[in-house]
Amino acid sequence: EPAQNFCSPGLESLVQRMGIASADEIAALEDNDSGQMLLESISNSRGDNIRDLTNSVAKELGLEVVSLRDNSAVEIAQSQGLLEHMDPLDATKLRYLPLRKTSNEVIVGMVDPLDMPTIGKLSFAFGCTVRVAMVFEHELLEQLRKLRGMQAVENAVAGQHVHTGITIGQDTELSDMNSAGEGANGDMPQNTAVIRLVNEMITNAYLA
Q1: Which of 25, 64, 32 has the alpha carbon at shortest distance from 46?
Q2: Percent over 70 (pLDDT), the chain
Q3: Residue 135 has what pLDDT?
Q4: Are 165 and 85 in contact (CB under 8 A)?
Q5: Cα 207 to Cα 150: distance, rounded to the nearest angstrom
Q6: What is the rounded distance in angstroms from the CA atom of residue 201 to the CA atom of residue 41?
Q7: pTM reported for the whole predicted model
Q8: Can you tell me the distance from the alpha carbon of 179 to that of 182, in angstroms, rounded to the nearest whole number?
Q9: Is 201's pLDDT higher than 90?
């Protein structure tokens, strides 16, 4: 899934200032339209190590880098309920993944740590401060593919496509859980127990 934006103005300026790539190089990479964002495009084009590039940018901004190579970060997010209201397709387009929460903030992994519109909308959606951590694009996409697969199975079991996530690509939409989880009279639908069982099986398979 292509990214919605190649890079934010802030990241483009930072990459130039750090001497990682010139304005002409960045423009050429964007015109190439690989579907990847700036840092991963630089890495693939020139053979630069993506971890070195990401770590350099993170160090310049004073941010942590979180690896999504295994499932541990996603397990934490799931255990804290951060993924229940996230639309994996939207997260794929904007390249973000909620990672963990504290008493007053949510840590969100992002490929572009200076994407201020997305950060602002996530902060509104979660109702608290968002602290950004950098993640590697290819690892993020792999985790989001798994989550999209889980969502597709859940929708199939429910017999319909039910949007229950935060969509922030255009407008912030907080989910109406009642529309997905209750009947017309406020009663839980008869197949809720089956859906929950299947969801639990899917999650256990994902975490295995």
Answers
A1: 25
A2: 72
A3: 97
A4: yes
A5: 12
A6: 37
A7: 0.75
A8: 6
A9: no
